Amino acid sequence: MEKNFLEIENVTFAASEKNKVSNVTLKIENEGDIICLLGPSGIGKTTILRTIAGLEKIKKGKILLKNKIISSKDIHVEPENRNIAMSFQDSSLFPHYNILKNIEFGAERNKKKKKNITINEVIKFLHLEQIKDKFPHQVSSGEAQRASLARALLSKPDLLLLDEPLSNVDQSFKEEIQVKLKKILIEQKITTIIVTHDSYEAFYLGSKCGIILNSQLRQYDDPYNIHHFPNSVEVVKFLNRGILIPAKVTGENSLENDDLGTINGNFIKHYPKGSDVQLLLQPEDLEHDDKSNLKLEVVDRKFRGTNFIYTLKTDSERLIPVFVHSHHIHQHEVDEKFGIKRPINIDHIVCF
């Protein structure tokens, strides 16, 4: 029989009638895996974490941790007996302890468990050296959040639950913390579920990601597949990494769009010739070519450091995003014409 580190079987997570996620089934296969849950605010992501931690009960289904039921209709293991640590978006630090004492409390929680990381190492990588003697009311929300994360990490739990762990962290060192956090979680083999609204963060940290929309877990897959092979229009719109344009299937490996002409590639799903479809077009799907005879009007240009994202307007007034590397010498201004390389080939054609 297959054994997974964590299994959630047909569970409805509900804090209220409006704030619930119904009939969730997912598994974390291996100790040390990291998964991320993405979805809009108020949809029930935090409720999922609270329920796994034992702070909410369930009415149907079951949750198993290391092959033992911790939640079901008839069984409810109390939070203090689950060896699960949770870092809330609101830091939940002990107000009468200074930051260092709060962090040390986490380290004391599982003294018998071998740790390969010290309190000082965690304080340093989370940039807490300057505030360790202060009390929670004397620090910023971002600092308190990082202290809560430090406490949770040092408790060496079987399962770590992080609710928007870096939402209040300054962008200047957010990526640095993400890199070090991932390294520690992997090295320490701390199985982790992270709730975040940031898809870039989720795609970097998670070995798998779950997309929660309209009270349902809509897709649960590795980040590459979620980005390139979204399974529904809802997921496409939530990720906002491309647009849907009308097209007609013209052959086994081709379709036609009125503005772009013929598009060739490999269909992810078979559609009969003549089918009217909505083609997913992502910024990296089209290539720039100044010499092309297919030219569209530039209506916007976003500089992203490593690249530009141009927004182009077609003859039918559709707006299409196109990725161009920032080292490309010829930059196009708004209202200029921008060439699209022909023939258009897309490695994997996703349609709905």
Provide a count of the helices: 8
| Strand-residue proportion | 25-35%
Quaternary structure state of the chains depicted: single chain
CATH class of the largest domain: Alpha Beta
Number of domains: 2
CATH superfamily of the largest domain: P-loop containing nucleotide triphosphate hydrolases
Low-confidence parts, pLDDT < 50 over ≥5 residues? Answer: none
- CATH architecture type of the largest domain: 3-Layer(aba) Sandwich
Helix content: 10-25%
What integer is the average pLDDT? 92
How many strand segments?
Answer: 19
Anisotropy-based shape = globular
**How are the strands of the largest sheet arranged?**
6-7-8-3-9-10
3D structure, described in words:
By secondary structure, the chain is of the alpha/beta class. Strand 4 (62-65) and strand 5 (68-72) form a beta hairpin. The protein is 22% helix and 33% strand. Helix 2 runs parallel beside helix 4. The protein has helices spanning 45-53, 99-109, 119-125, 141-154, 171-187, 199-205, 223-228, 233-239; strands spanning 6-14, 20-28, 34-38, 62-65, 68-72, 84-87, 159-163, 191-196, 208-213, 216-221, 243-251, 254-257, 261-267, 276-281, 295-303, 307-313, 319-325, 337-339, 344-349.
